[in-house]
């Protein structure tokens, strides 16, 4: 039988999920044992009186949803097997289960166990305990990282927070109660599922399966309380909605609007972590749209917010803006399992800010992008002249498609523009530079202007453009295999960043939409075919992560690790 398309598989899985969770079926039990009960479809884990409503806890045979142990990565399976062999309980938890049910490739597989973190560390040769706020044990199996948390640690951390029930209800199974208490410390219902591959059982204590069925994002505890307890959940919620195309429950949406300003209370390092997760994993454009919708863009990226507001006031659709097209084309090249480094989206932002403040002729920008794309000076100029009339004119960034500039004039303008891009990086790393840049938007008011991109990262991004600031006529083409090296891209390799940035700019200027790509001249697409394209999500076949190039020492000894709730 011919393989189904990605969209067809997604529809098939979602259809199976909806059928399985039809209202009339939600009132039935699915797995016998451990206190067989009949479950209702009402939302919530606790009654209004504060009592635990165990009748709403559900145990589901995962095979009915096409989820089996064979879909778990080999490293995660090894961790689970070793912990169970030592007499401990161990489960997969969080986003990996959600992603598998939604036909997505999980970014990683997280494990939770009844063992203490010290006991976990003793069970594996390559393991280290990291993190202060959310301590975990990082285990390396066959070159891949598996993060293991402990019921014991989470219980201590959540004792004075979400869980108000200290005594186990009468007739409640102790294991169920422990898992339920752990769920109460989590952010969103879709992240609160447990999966035991050994017996093919999914544990649902928060009505998560119903939310997955309706593609809805809801907090585990009341949204207002949840976001006040951890402001980072606001950004994580937007990230999940953007990546998985989820809608918000009414309560969650109201809380996002009313509490969005709390994000400014987070440390700059935490904001940077969450923003990088939003923009580097294939959902940058929808993430920016949600940040704008909930008034967060003016806090986190105020120049971008002012730019969008000004353009929209000029009757331009937000998705048609050059900034949004750049990030759309970034999303076409990366995925959750093949992300980019933070430096790439910072470079894209700086490029757009510089071009907005210093509009250029199409031939200049095409030459600039072609040089980044590893072409020689002569190749770049010839290509730019040949394709200038095909360029999409963005207002105000692109002046026109005229071709009257001499080669020397183009070279001078490319070098000048490269310096302007480097200067634009300062807007993202220096508050004084941000304040000065915002003076060009007299009608836009933002009282925040959080700067979260580090000076070190800013300097690294500037290095991407150094090659274009002088003697551009002497630039020689780099030998390439023809495609994107995703390992180098993830590590932030400067040459790979240049290549991909050039590709993104060229696509933004020359491809009006996906349907038109077939009609664009073939010369442009000569090297733009990705030899190792982003992997399609297939629920029946999850790739086994066996990357031998992982730097084990670097992964294990990242003692500054702050463990966020996984997406």
Search tags:
567 residues, alpha+beta, eight-stranded mixed beta sheet, two-stranded parallel ribbon, 24 helices, 10 strands, elongated
Question: Layout of SSEs?
Answer:
Blueprint: H1 6-20, E1 58-61, H2 74-85, E2 90-93, H3 95-101, E3 110-113, H4 117-123, E4 127-130, E5 136-141, E6 144-150, H5 151-157, H6 174-183, E7 194-196, E8 201-204, H7 208-213, E9 216-217, H8 223-229, H9 232-244, E10 247-248, H10 250-259, H11 268-279, H12 284-293, H13 297-300, H14 302-313, H15 322-333, H16 342-357, H17 362-372, H18 377-387, H19 407-429, H20 431-438, H21 455-465, H22 486-491, H23 494-510, H24 552-556
Parallel strand pairs: 3-6, 9-10
Antiparallel strand pairs: 1-8, 2-3, 2-7, 4-5, 5-6, 7-8
Helix pairs in contact: 8-10, 9-11, 9-12, 12-15, 15-16, 15-23, 16-19, 16-21, 17-18, 17-19, 17-23, 19-20, 19-21, 21-23
Question: What's this entry about, in short?
Answer:
The protein has about 575 residues and is of the alpha+beta class.
Largest sheet: 8 strands, mixed
State the end-to-end distance: 34 Å
Strand content: 5-15%
* Percent of residues in helices: 40-55%
Q: What structural class do you assign from the helix and strand content?
A: alpha+beta
| Count of runs of 4 or more consecutive helical residues | 24
Got a strand count? Answer: 10
Tell me, rounded to a whole number, the average pLDDT: 82
Shape: elongated
Cα Rg: 25 Å
Unreliable spans are 1-6, 23-44, 159-164, 513-567
Lateral arrangement of strands in the main beta sheet: 1-8-7-2-3-6-5-4
